[in-house]
TrEMBL record:
This is Ring-hydroxylating dioxygenase. Belongs to the bacterial ring-hydroxylating dioxygenase beta subunit family. Coiled coil: none annotated. Keywords: Aromatic hydrocarbons catabolism, Dioxygenase, Oxidoreductase. Pfam families: Ring_hydroxyl_B. Pathway: Aromatic compound metabolism. SUPFAM superfamilies: NTF2-like (SSF54427). GO terms for molecular function: dioxygenase activity. The keyword Oxidoreductase applies.
Length: 171
């Protein structure tokens, strides 16, 4: 599908279609198909958040603590761990539901698009373990051979303290 970055509505629809497919792949743990939505030079980053007084707020710093600071290769290694039999926190498996909303799309440069979105991810495991992860994503999307791919993702959780028992989830 060719992307016309001068057509706001078509661009918004294409990005939403990408995000819907991504959410489905992640919910189904179909990681190989999810990897197909990512570029080879992917930068996937989720910094920790600090609760500060307004006057002391600063932008997230890549040199400080991160929940995720991944490449496509490191994400592949994380996902392959599920097939080893040693991912105890995922046996039995966690059930996921990714909800993506408030998508905004902005042309960037050349074949790149900047997109903002909000997410809610629900996780349920065993009989009573539940967790909600809520936040915002800022993506740099790139058109490769007519298809949108995620080249860079910055994830900002609304929580400053992770309340989930683990972080075996992709956002």
């Amino acid at each position: 599908m060719s992307i016309d970055s001068s057509n706001d509505q078509a661009l918004w629809f294409a990005v939403n279609r990408l995000y819907a497919a991504e959410a489905r792949y992640l919910d189904q743990e179909d990681y190989e198909r999810w990897f197909g939505l990512l570029t080879e030079d992917l930068h996937y980053w989720m910094p920790t958040r600090e609760t500060r007084f307004r006057r002391d707020e600063t932008a997230p710093d890549p040199q400080r603590m991160n929940f995720y600071k991944e490449t496509l290769e490191s994400l592949r290694m994380r996902a392959s761990r599920l097939d080893t039999g040693t991912a105890w926190s995922e046996n039995p498996r966690t059930r996921y539901r990714h909800l993506i909303t408030n998508v905004e799309v902005f042309p960037a440069s050349g074949n790149e698009i900047r997109a903002l979105s909000n997410f809610i991810v629900y996780r349920h495991r065993l009989e009573r373990e539940e967790a909600w992860l809520v936040g915002q994503r800022e993506d740099l999307l790139r058109t490769i051979e007519g298809e949108l791919r995620i080249a860079r993702r910055t994830i900002l959780l609304d929580q400053s303290v992770l309340l989930s028992k683990n972080l075996n989830v992709y956002l």
